[in-house]
Structures are given as C-alpha cells and as structure tokens.
Amino acid sequence: MALLHYCSCSTPSSPTPLLPFKKWTPKSIIFTVPALRPLRHRFSKNRPSPRLSATLAVESPTTSDDERGGYSPKILLEVKGLSAVISESKQPILKGVNLVIKEGEVHAIMGKNGSGKSTFAKVLVGHPDYEVTGGSVVFKGENVLDMVPEERALAGLFMSFQSPVEIPGVSNIDFLNMAYNARRKRLGQPELGPIEFYGYIYHKLDLVNMKVDFLNRNVNEGFSGGERKRNEIFQLAVLGADLAILDEIDSGLDVDALRDVAKAVNGILTPKNSVLMITHYLRLLEFIKPTYVHIMENGRIVETGDESIAKRIERAGYKTISAA
Amino acid sequence: MAASIFTPNYPLKPSSSICVNTSPNPSKFATSIIKPRPRTTRINVLTAIASLSDPFVLQIAETLEDSLSSASPPLPLQKLREASSQSLLSTPWPSRKDEPFRFTDTSFIKLSHIQPIQFPPQSTNFLGVSTDTHLPNLVIVDGFLIDSLSQFPQLPNGVFVGTLSNLNSEAIMNRVSEFMSNFEGDLFWSLNGVGTPDLVLVYVPEGCRVESPLHLRYCSVSGGASESKNLPISNPRVLVVVEKGGEIDIVEEYVGVEGEKCYWANSVTEVVIGEGGKVSHSYLQSQSMNAAHIKWTSVRQESASTYELVEVSTGGKLSRHNLHVQQVGPDTVTELSTFHLSSSDQTQDLHSKLVLDHPRGVSRQLHKCIVAHSLGQAVFDGNVKVNRYAQQTDAGQLTRSLLLEPRATVNVKPNLQIIANDVKCSHGAAISDLEENQLFYFQARGVDLATARRALIFSFGSEVIERLPHSFLRKKVENHIKELLDPAVKGFK
Q1: A75-320 maps to which CATH number?
Q2: CB contact under 8 A, A126 and B443
Q3: Which of A307, A315, B79, B222 has a Cα-to-Cα distance from B72 of 20 to 30 A?
Q4: Residue in B445, B461, B462 closest to A153 by CB
Q5: What integer pLDDT is reported at residue A210 of this predicted model?
Q6: pLDDT value at position B153?
Q7: Where are the domains positioned within chain B?
C-alpha cells in the first residue's frame, strides 16, 4: 500500500482526474514495492518510468516539470480492470486489463495467440461479439462503454481490423464518403458531395501507394491481404483518429508493404494523437517506434516496459514472462 | 439470422452419366397438356375435353375472344389464336398442387372479376410520354400499340417495328409464321395468345446492328379501385426476330399510370436470335402494388448467339416471370441477371428454365431478391437442363435472398438436370439477413446503423442493377428502389 499512497500523492499538479486507486487490489500491480524504488530513482533524471506511466499513469511532479516545462500530456485513454466475455458462450477472455495512454504516445501490445490482444482491441471499439463484465474505459474524459460503436468512432477511436470484411456492392469511395460525412455532421459541418470528397481524398492515395482505381473497387472485395491492410490505413488517413488501434496491421505484409503502411502511420502521428499496436513481431516496432511495450497474458497486461521487452520476446519467446 | 450456402460442383468423369436434381421434387409440368390429335374420333376428343376443361378458364377465354375486333387477323396471329384456344381447352387454372405454382398463389386473380380491355383509352395525353424521346420509343397502352405516342427516329433500313397488321412484307410475314405456336407455355401463355389484340413485331434483318436501344413502354391505364374486385386484363404480345448476325438492345418497362389500381397485365415476349446474333434485354417491372403481372419471356438461341437479360422487378401484388431459354445451336452465350424486391404485401416470382441441347453453351445466371415486408414473399425456381448432346457446357447459377423482416418468406428451388457427361456446372443458394460483421464495419467507421443498413440493402441489389446497359435506366431504377426501401429502413430500430 505504500506504493499506492506514494503515487496518489505524487501528482497534485496533474490537470487530469486522479485514478481511483482504492479500487485496485495490490495483486494487479505486477512488480513489488522494493523493486520499484531503485527503478524510479534510476529513471527519474531521464524520463518517467515506462512501467509506472503505463500501468498507473502517474509521474513524479519533478520529472514532468523538468522535462516538459510545465506541460504534461493529457490522458487519452484510461482502461481500468476491464473484463469481458464472449457474448455467445460467456467464456471470459479479458480478466482485468489496465492501461493508460496519453497523447502522443505509441503503445504496442504483444502476447501469445489467444492471450486476448485482439479481443481487447475489439472491446474498445464496441464489437458485438463481446460483452463487458467489469471495469471501465474512459476516452478523452468520456465513458466509452456507454457509447454505441459509431459514437466511439466519431469520438476519435479507430480500429484497423485484423481481417477486414468484404462489402460487395459498396465502393471504397462511397464507403469513405459516408464515414467522412458522419464525422462532418457530428462537427456541424456541411456534408461533402461525391465530387468534393473525391478532391479531398485523391491525394491521400499517395500515403498508402494506391492507384486511383482503388477508390472505385468495392470495399475489400477481392483485395489481397496487403491491399486490405493498406485500405485500413488509408481509411485511418482519410478519417483521422485521436487513438488508432492497429490490430496486427503487419501480418501478411511483405517488407515493402510493411514499410508503406508504417510510413503512413508515422505520417499520421502528431503530438496530439496516439497509436496502440497489436503485433506479434519486432519488425513492426522497428518501423514504428513504441513508447511502451506491453505483454498480455491470459486476459491481462502482465508486463510493461520499453522496446527491450519486445527484443527479449523475439529472442527467447514468451516463456520468459512470469504470469502474475 | 439463418444463412445457408451450398455450392456443389459436379465434376463429371467422361464415363459416368448422372442426372442431378437438387430439389425434393423433380420438375414436372403438372398441368398436363393433351393435344387432341386429328385422327382420334370426335367422341374421344370430346371426352378428353369434358374431363379436362376448366369452366372458369373457358369463360375467360370466351370473354377474351368476344372482345377482339371482328376484322380478320393476319395469318400468323390467326394461327396463334387457334393453337392457344386449343390448348386452353385442356388447361385448368393452376392450383398450389401443381408444381410450377406450388409456392405461388394465383387465387387473387381467380377471385377477381376479370374484364377484357376492348379499346385503348381515348385520351392518352396524361401519360406524360415526353422524356428521352430521342430514343426509339414504343408505347403499348393496355396491350394496344399507340402509334401517336411512339416514335422511331434513325432505325436502320430493313428494320421493322410495329404491329403485324401494318406489316406489308410477305417475306417477313412468312418468317413470323414459322415461329408462331412453336412453344408450349402454360395457361397464361395461352390466354395471352387468345386475348392479344395484335402482335407487335420487332424485326432486325441479317447483319443489321441497331445502335440505339428500342424502348418498349407498357402502360396500364384501365384499372379498378384498389379494393374493388374489378380486374381489367391486358394481353400485350411482342415478337423480336433478330436474323443472322443482327444485334438489338431492347428495354421493356412496365408501369401503372395512375395510382395503385387493380389490373392484370398478362404479357408475352418472344425472342428469336439467329446465328451469331445478339440481344440485350432490359426488363423493368414497376407496376401498381395492386396489380397482377404475369410475364412470359421465351427465347430461342441459334448457334453462337448471345442473349443478355437484366431484370428488376419491384411492383405488382402478384408478379410472376416465366423465363424460358432454349438453345437450338452450339456455342451460345446466355447471361441472366435478375433482381426482385418484395417491399410490401406482395409476391415476386421467377421461374426460369434454360434448356441446353448443343455443345459449348455458356450460361451465367444470378438471381437476387430482397423481401422487406413480413407479408412479402419471393419465389425462385431456376431450372438448368444440360441434355445429352450439350457437351462442354459451362453453366453457373447463383441465387441470394435477403430476408429483412420476421415472417418474410422466400422459396428457392435451384435445380440442375445434367445428362451430358463432360460439363462444368455449379449452383449456389444463400438466404440471410444482413451480415452482422458488415454492419459493424460501417459502425466502426462512424456510420450509424440505419445508414449502414440502407447502404447494405441497396448494395445487395446493385450487383444486378449495375449490369443494366444504360445509365438512364440505372439511375431510374436506383431512385425507385431507394424510395421503396426507405420505409423498410426507417421502420427498423
């Protein structure tokens, strides 16, 4: 409890609301208190501890003041104790996920097959296959779990699908036009007609190295794996997002396609928006540098650190993780 | 959501010969057609007739005959009327026990007071036929070709478009005669043969390509009030003859002119395509929602000819399309794309039959239907017959149905009958609601559920609509379907 006390006292100047730590059980924190102190001291002169920031979202006031000259990035997404089951079978998949993402950060989640990574992504955007059974998700200060999927999207959450569905009969440009107009409507701006919209997205094609005829093809119909992934990133580029959740955007891509996709993602990144990547491979992290890497295991985030974790996993596999 | 897809392929080894029929009941014409043979004695014929004649059918046939003008018709028409009356003598009104009408209830017609329409309406100004008149335009009102409303700019030499009574060429008349009463349809086919006031002929001579589409507009003007039992019947009949190497593009459009009247359009179109000829056929049916619409399309394809049909049917309380394509030579290409929308208390029915008797025929059939009303119904019976000599046939058939309301019904019976042993045939049928994961994909991009549903429902039909060969038709159909689907989409929550 010493840790909890310390943390909650350490952010008096933070403009963001404090986390209600009291609800947490010490078990949800993966490292012990004695181990923490030396870590903190080691990092305090450079940057906030990744473990601390990612898991608890608190920083020592001195470091944040030193580094950012009084400006501390806002918390974008705050997930606490999130648990979820498969709607049909009621099988539990997420068992208390905690994660905080701030503006401008790039997070990566790794983990074994079936550890719950993709489920986590889908639950965040409100996929109907899953039912949330506990915990909370706050995005830009709003309770996401109360929102229907389209509201979440309009609020600035974007998930690129691992295997995007084909929609025969609806062209890419019409689909994007609909989605883009939904955003404009929300912002109280007039909707764009097909011709104006074409003018808007035409040059965005270069971002993902796609030809113009790509716009007239039906959404994902007959697309190769690479084209589908490019299309997801293209949608992200056109629609924009405060938090882009990229679910295995690298799987099934050759090196060139991966570079294109990574270039597009990096091009979209600003100090204000953030990325949450789900991946199996270090390769993606070499193109898109993560601020934090999390390891997911059995429906929970069990380890958080920097890129070195990913390197260790790549080298030695997941057996190096001791499940909490 | 119930979805089922089965797409069996039948890789046939040269040695084996099998007959595949996927339906529980093999197709059979339950309405037995027994033609009185000339050599039988008079007594036998009478007995046969007495036992098979349906008094109700005879009564309609009689009133239809009485309504015709007394002027003596051209020979082919006379021949048609005789053959049709003959077959009516032995054809009863179809019941649900007859296989071709197992899912299609025609009692709505039977319970109405059927009246022949004797004359076309005197005033046709209200039809508002003024748009896109740069195209050859044929207006058929209540079954009568109205010359004053029709116009044929720039038709190539030798092309004849008009009624048989106005045809002066003996050669063409003889040609027409060859095709009369070659084909045995059902009761409705024969009723049309007895009741049609004249035959509209479209004749394309050898090697002639008609550039601009020929637009046939069938307008129904006479009609009973929506709750009345009065059912005026019109019997338009069109014969399209395209000689060797000729090409034409036909647009058939059926509309009710004023409000939701009750009437019965009993239409027949015959198409004969000569060697290497090509017919592109667009068929749009947007009749009154209280109308009965029975339509026959019979096509004869000679060698290396091409027939492409795109149908969009949305109107009628009862709409039935009997489509029969007969191959009479090798190397034919047949493409059938049909879209049916049942957006109210209505039945949309397609009975198609494709008979392949010669080698190397290629056929593609796509049928899609949406039932968006709890009392709506769609019926599809798609028969493809690959007979003994139709080797190296490549026949594909696919049907997809979308049921959007509880209790909405679809009866689908795709069936292949294959006797040839070296063929490539496939078929598939799927019935479903909208795909959850497609809806979610829209939502995940910020599009609300109602808009997503509308887009998906609309896109379902657009696969067929996109195949309409002219943009003005596509636009017209798209707008019409949007209108019809709007309540279905709004009603959803």
Answers
A1: 3.40.50.300
A2: yes
A3: B222
A4: B445
A5: 84
A6: 72
A7: 28-123+135-329
